[in-house]
Amino acid sequence: MYFIYGFCEGNEYQAAEEYKRRYPKRRGPNRRVFGRVQRCLRETGSFPKHTAERQSTLNKQDEVMILSNKALLRVFDEYQMLLTSAE
Questions:
Q1: Which domain, by its residues, includes 32?
Q2: DSSP 3-state percent helix, strand, coil across the chain (nearest 5)
Q3: Residues 6+ apart with CB under 8 A from 78
Q4: Is the pLDDT of residue 18 over 80?
């Protein structure tokens, strides 16, 4: 989900539409969810609590994917900071 937000360059509306396009059989999140997750990650360094609680039941393969995504999030945040400082 957060990867899609980065793919859409932080645009909540586009991220919600892209999520629905990629996962047509899933219930699509409200566009505001993407912004809330982003804010929570920046403020606390972790996903909102109810999301983190669900992660505890994941298998090893899912845990590796989550750790990879966290590394990707750090790169995305650094990229956004570089773009902001270049303006």
A1: 2-86
A2: 75, 0, 25
A3: none
A4: yes
